[in-house]
Amino acid sequence: MTVAPNARPLTGRAVLALFVLGFGVIIGVNMLLAVSAVRTFPGLEVPNSYVASQEFDARRAAQERLGWQVAASYAPGRLSLSLTDADGRPLRPADLTLDIGRPTEVADELTAVLDMGPDGLGATVSLAPGRWRLDVGATAPDGTRFQKILLIGVPG
């Protein structure tokens, strides 16, 4: 084995510097990803999950007794919503709300204004391609709160 005459020998200091630099890059990238994850996390949904689960079961049972069904479809520029009672008749609750957003982030959230169009109940809205979450809410005449989450896909 021949050594080039101008080659520097690999010393302990150089190995230590390479070791510290390599792990420094790994730790730096991990810290950046952790800070980004925490910054974009929306936070807690409920303060006490046990109490929320007990209330959820009662609300779910009351909502199921209503027998309401909801469906949604999207055509470019128009989001259509169908809400029917247990007999299949269309419903038009006065306090019907529709919140639109992405399933995994809060950046694209918006509240749609529903109107009666030629194809029924809907909203004029432009959705980018991808998966969208629709949060539908209404109150029945007997005071029962109806809530449903629908996921739709917008082709790209």
CATH secondary-structure class of the domain at 68-154:
Mainly Beta
Q: Look at the structure and give the mean pLDDT.
A: 87
Secondary structure: helix percent: 25-40%
Rg, please? 27 Å
Strand content: 25-35%
3D structure, described in words:
InterPro entries: FixH, FixH_proteobacterial. It holds the Pfam family FixH. This protein is α+β, with helices and mostly antiparallel strands and 156 residues long. The protein has a domain at 68-154: Immunoglobulin-like (Sandwich). Helices cover 30% and strands 32% of the residues. The chain contains 2 helices and 8 strands. The strands form 2 sheets. Strands 1-2-6-5 form a 4-stranded antiparallel beta sheet, with no helix packed on it. The radius of gyration is 27 Å and the shape is elongated. The N and C termini lie far apart (60 Å). The model has no long low-confidence stretch (mean pLDDT 87).
Please render the helix and strand layout as text.
Layout: H1 12-40, H2 49-66, E1 69-75, E2 78-84, E3 97-101, E4 110-112, E5 115-117, E6 120-124, E7 130-139, E8 145-154
Antiparallel strand pairs: 1-2, 2-6, 3-4, 3-7, 5-6, 7-8
